[in-house]
């Protein structure tokens, strides 16, 4: 029983009472915490292997690189290229870590700037480890910051390089998406992917003619080697640039698979087709790229 009082002219005057009965328990809904969505809960961050050998610095087979370009719109823009270690320490990219392309290096696009990160220099100066490249651009009163995926700078090792392929894209001209390589000549940049290069049946073309004595003569054969390149598990940041833009250019392909039929190095190839397969449950794709070499003519005569 619960007693209540209501104010009257007399303090603490008891003038009413009420009874209570038990009721069902009522549970109030409470709002659950909403978690921020993070792809890291579903898949690992993409790491690109970047090989370096401080004991063989001039060996291109063992030492990787990556170039980054920036196109400011204003002569008053300020910018910086930073190498960010896994510990968060930011180091300006200068000649001790690679090559610097200052304003004016491209006379046809005079505001263009860039860097070429040489991983062997990074290993010498900062050591092996995981790094990203951060670019800060300040112009027209605002700052834009972009940051790359992670590069794992590691010592070159044949076993570690197994099942990878180095693709160097020969960029030139203006692409259908408006990327302008004018003034850069043949601007070669590289990416290392998980995959394998396989040689397929060659294309053989015979050029024949009929003589006055009605003989059919084949006096030349054009033989073109063809290849299939499997590229595995790459995100859009790599795939879009490599396939959408890079497929318009020639590729220089070096395969590092230990058990491949041949030691394929520095093959200059053209892209024929780029079919792909989305990986269920991931934001990645597998590509099966068809390539062919430049025409190699064998001068032969058959009667």
Largest sheet: 6 strands, mixed
Mean pLDDT: 84
The radius of gyration computed from the alpha-carbon positions, rounded to a whole number of angstroms, is 32 Å
| Sequence stretches where pLDDT stays below 50 over 5 or more residues | 1-6, 12-18, 296-303
**Mass-distribution shape:** globular
- Name the structural class: mainly beta
Share of residues in strands: 35-45%
Question: Helix tally?
Answer: 3
Q: How many separate structural domains?
A: 2
Explain how this protein is built:
This protein is mainly beta. It folds into two domains: 45-161, Immunoglobulin-like, CATH 2.60.40; 162-303. The protein is 7% helix and 45% strand. It contains three helices and 17 strands. Strands 1, 3, 4, 7, 8 and 9 form a six-stranded mixed beta sheet that branches. The longest helix has 10 residues, at 236-245. The protein is globular, with a radius of gyration of 32 Å.
List the helices and strands and how they pair.
Blueprint: E1 47-52, E2 65-70, E3 78-85, E4 90-92, E5 98-101, E6 113-118, H1 119-125, E7 129-139, E8 142-147, E9 150-155, H2 158-161, E10 164-171, E11 187-210, E12 216-234, H3 236-245, E13 250-255, E14 267-273, E15 276-278, E16 285-293, E17 296-298
Parallel strand pairs: 1-9
Antiparallel strand pairs: 2-6, 3-4, 3-7, 5-6, 7-8, 7-9, 10-11, 10-13, 11-12, 12-16, 12-17, 13-14, 14-16, 15-16
Key terms:
3 helices; 6-stranded antiparallel barrel; disordered C terminus; 2 domains; mainly beta; 6-stranded mixed β-sheet; single chain; 17 strands; disordered N terminus; 303 residues; Immunoglobulin-like; globular; 7% helix
């Amino acid at each position: 029983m619960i007693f209540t009082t209501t104010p009257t002219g007399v303090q603490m005057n008891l003038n009413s009472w009420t009874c209570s009965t038990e009721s069902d328990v009522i549970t109030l809904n409470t709002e659950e915490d909403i978690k921020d969505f993070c792809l890291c809960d579903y898949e690992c961050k993409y790491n690109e292997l970047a090989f370096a050998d401080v004991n063989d610095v001039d060996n291109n087979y063992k030492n990787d690189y990556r170039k980054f370009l920036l196109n400011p719109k204003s002569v008053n823009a300020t910018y910086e290229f930073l190498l960010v270690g896994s510990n968060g320490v930011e180091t300006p990219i200068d000649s001790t870590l690679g090559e610097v392309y200052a304003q004016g290096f491209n006379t046809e696009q005079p505001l263009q700037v860039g860097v070429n990160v040489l991983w062997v220099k990074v290993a010498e100066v900062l050591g092996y480890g995981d790094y990203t490249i951060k670019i800060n651009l300040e112009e027209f009163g605002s700052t834009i910051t972009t940051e790359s995926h992670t590069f794992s700078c590691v010592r070159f090792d044949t076993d570690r390089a197994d099942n990878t392929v180095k693709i160097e894209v020969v960029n030139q001209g203006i692409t259908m998406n408006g990327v302008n390589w004018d003034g850069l000549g043949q601007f070669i940049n590289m990416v290392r992917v998980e995959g394998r290069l396989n040689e397929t049946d060659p294309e053989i073309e015979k050029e024949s003619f009929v003589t006055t004595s009605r003989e059919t003569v084949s006096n030349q054969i054009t033989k073109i080697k063809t290849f299939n390149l499997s590229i595995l598990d790459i995100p859009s940041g790599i795939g879009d640039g490599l396939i959408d833009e890079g497929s318009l250019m020639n590729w220089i392909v070096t395969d590092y698979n230990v058990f491949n039929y041949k030691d394929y190095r520095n093959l200059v190839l053209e892209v024929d087709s780029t079919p792909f397969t989305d990986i269920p449950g991931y934001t990645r794709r597998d590509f099966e790229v068809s390539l062919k070499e430049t025409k190699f003519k064998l001068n032969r005569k058959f009667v």
